[in-house]
Amino acid sequence: MSTSLIVENLSKRFGSTLAIDQASFSVPKNSFVSIVGPSGCGKSTLLRIAAGLVRASGGRIKLRGQEVTGPIRDVGMVFQSPVLLPWRTTLGNILFVAEMGGLRAADYEGRARELMALAGLSGFEESRPFELSGGMQQRAAICRAMLLKPSLILMDEPFGALDVITRERMGFALQTLWEESRNTVLFVTHSITEAVLLSDIVVVMSPRPGRIHDIVEIDLPRSRTSATLRDPRFVAFAARVREGIEAGETEY
């Protein structure tokens, strides 16, 4: 499998604080990779460096063989907040990314409606954000990120503000959307269950300064369902990730 993104000896310092220290891992093309670790270990900072929004202090990130030195066009981003425009409809919010790219929104309306159907948003095309639940707003934000089929999608705790039940449903909705497009995804989360359920690879980071403590390949069949959560292999993978986080907290 070819590599989409490579993190090489990445370090980031904010003043006297070393946030990330010599982090290295690779993200295979069309794979779903999660980053987990305790708060403050540099997960979100790493994501912002990958997007070209923040410069590294040392090392580098390469996307499709080219070093990331500034903002990248061919990247979709999903944040913890859906950041929808309140005066636009759901469909209009999803199509906004095409307009911002100088494209004709009408050319992408069919795909937008297909994504909305996969995300369970059919019938809400003309709704405004205030008429949607938090989970529905975030599903719209994910559809927006996937509209132009970017080669890389970066997700920073996209379900962090949701309740546990909605968060689980969102995980399955995201899986459905991702299996349709097979973008390369780099996903930051604090949830071990979420990371193992969604991912092909889970990168475990230590506390600040963030270092790569373990890389866990999740060898579970897709599509994954609620039954996957009871699979002994799932339980074993989740235990390994948890042990990696706990070991990292005492080792460094």
From TrEMBL:
The keyword rRNA processing does not apply. Residues 5-232 form the ABC transporter domain. The keyword Nucleotide-binding applies. Coiled coil: none annotated. InterPro entries: AAA+_ATPase (IPR003593), ABC_transporter-like_ATP-bd (IPR003439), ABC_transporter-like_CS (IPR017871), ABC_transporter_ATP-bind (IPR050166), P-loop_NTPase (IPR027417). One of its GO terms (molecular function) is ATP binding. Keywords: ATP-binding, Nucleotide-binding, Transport. Belongs to the ABC transporter superfamily. This is ABC transporter ATP-binding protein. It comes from Bosea rubneri. The lineage of its organism: Bacteria, Pseudomonadati, Pseudomonadota, Alphaproteobacteria, Hyphomicrobiales.
